[in-house]
Write a structure and sequence with these properties.
The protein is mostly helical. About 75% of the residues lie in helices and about 0% in strands. The radius of gyration is 21 Å and the shape is elongated.
């Protein structure tokens, strides 16, 4: 099937594809839009190719399903990493969760100030990669595309940035 035929077929399938994406995203239309856009990008970038072994609809619906699963897996992994990082930070600072009131608010404000200061000590590229991954929910590869750098370079900035950030936030570095 020619690329133009695939494009026309996908245009005709768009309403049904969106409905399927909503199902794959457990009823979340905003997530479904993201998944569908990612699926279209896979087709445009030729990372997903229609080989003609099934109908166009069957093939594209499988691309949408796999894309939804990949995004959900990446999101869960990021959440787990963030949770681990938060637990380490809380354990290092030993801020008790039951301490409400002005002292607790001061501790939270102090923690935010320390994180901002630690991020400020990173190189610009490390800070950008970490912010894109942790605060904007991008993968390292997506952050590399945003920053127009190679994926390998982004991975190095990500790893070094995390290491430096963790070192800056450990209790023995409080005086710096």
């Amino acid at each position: 099937m020619a690329a133009e035929d695939v494009q026309r077929g996908l245009e005709q399938l768009h309403p049904a594809s969106f409905a399927w994406a909503v199902v794959c995203c457990h009823g979340d239309p905003a997530e479904a839009e993201e998944v569908l856009q990612s699926a279209y990008l896979k087709v445009l970038e030729r990372r997903a190719r229609f080989a003609g072994r099934s109908s166009l609809k069957t093939w594209f619906f499988s691309v949408v399903r796999r894309t939804a699963v990949e995004r959900a897996r990446r999101r869960r992994l990021r959440q787990a990493k963030l949770l681990l990082w938060r637990r380490r930070e809380a354990g290092a600072r030993e801020v008790r969760a039951d301490s409400a009131g002005p002292h607790h608010e001061a501790a939270v404000g102090e923690r935010a100030r320390r994180i901002r200061a630690a991020l400020g000590r990173l190189s610009r590229r490390q800070r950008q990669v970490l912010e894109l991954v942790f605060y904007h929910d991008l993968t390292v590869a997506e952050a590399a595309a945003v920053l127009a750098i190679g994926v390998g370079s982004a991975r190095v900035h990500y790893a070094r940035g995390k290491t430096r950030l963790l070192a800056a936030l450990t209790p023995e570095n409080d005086d710096e």
